[in-house]
Amino acid sequence: AEEHLDLDDGRWEDIHVITGALKLFFRELPEPLVPFGHFDKFIAAIKMQDPVRRGRCVRDLVYSLPPPNHDTMKVLFRHLCRVIEYREENRMSVQSVAIVFGPTLLRPASEEGNMAMHMVFQNQVVEHILNHYGHIF
Fold first, then answer.
1. I need a labelling partner for 42 at 20 to 30 A (CA). Which of 5, 12, 93, 131 fits?
2. The pTM is what?
3. CATH code, 10-135
């Protein structure tokens, strides 16, 4: 059954409702936007010391995503880049956006291991893609 949303309904005026819904959508996917099989590869790429190699590797990984994932990522990150353009008003810097979306968009298949450590790199991956959006897409 298709749901019809009335976007003129007052409750949609609260930006936190919209962003919460967006985050929840990505969080509730059976598999994250970055498939489990890509998680370790993205983490390995972001750990590379050489910025040129790191950049090339992340871009190649984004291109290697299944087309629906790649296309969704492109649209989502284009939107997030727009959000960041207004960071003076909305206080959403690249770092803030990465903290919000990092763990939602890419996470390991099992929640074992060093979660805090993962978190740092998950955020760095999102930050990198935001900072190099034009180059990657």
1. 93
2. 0.87
3. 1.10.555.10
